[in-house]
Design brief:
The protein is mainly α. The protein is built from 7 helices and no strands. The relative contact order is 0.18.
Length: 176
């Protein structure tokens, strides 16, 4: 059955639902590819450091769980299928990280009643320390993209971890 024949069997509501799912897939693919390209850019600039980070992270259960799910869901094929998606430059930017930190903090407080719910103070201190997004390398099928996505996440959150309190109590900016 061709896609045109299939479309005849579907109601307008079905088609609208499928279009929404396709938009969600396109967004997710752009986010994953953006992270992977950031990670690949970092790996190309710092190969030994990237390998060391991955070696340390590979011992953690959440790294292994992520790898299992990445493989199970065949996200590598999903990411490489078709033309490369446009970059999603706001992926894990300052506002997104602030929302994620708040979500994780609230989740922790729900699991452990002794933990306070704290609104994190995250400044928008990006840009990343990797090249500008438009200068990022292309993804190749020969790469294992889970590792690149993980490195891309680290590249995105690293500037936030560099914020340190200065002697006068104010947060200082990370070094470029």
């Amino acid at each position: 059955m061709t896609s045109k024949e299939q479309a005849k069997e579907l109601s307008p509501e079905d088609l609208a639902l499928l279009a929404g799912l396709r938009r969600g897939n396109d967004w997710l693919r752009a986010v994953l590819c953006t992270l992977a390209r950031r990670g690949l850019g970092f790996r190309q600039q710092h190969p030994a450091r990237a390998e060391q980070l991955l070696a340390v992270l590979s011992r953690y259960p959440y790294f292994k769980a992520g790898q299992f799910l990445f493989d199970l869901m065949e996200w590598e094929d999903f990411m490489l299928d078709g033309e490369p998606p446009p970059l999603a430059p706001t992926t894990l930017d300052g506002p997104a990280l602030q929302r994620m930190a708040g979500l994780l903090n609230t989740f922790r407080a729900h699991l452990d009643g002794g933990q306070p719910i704290v609104a994190p103070e995250v400044d928008t201190i990006l840009p990343l320390f990797v090249p500008e997004d438009e200068d990022l390398p292309s993804l190749e099928p020969s790469l294992y993209l889970y590792h690149e996505v993980v490195l891309g996440i680290l590249c995105s959150v690293r500037p936030l971890l560099q914020v340190q309190a200065s002697p006068d109590g104010e947060a200082s900016r990370p070094a470029s």
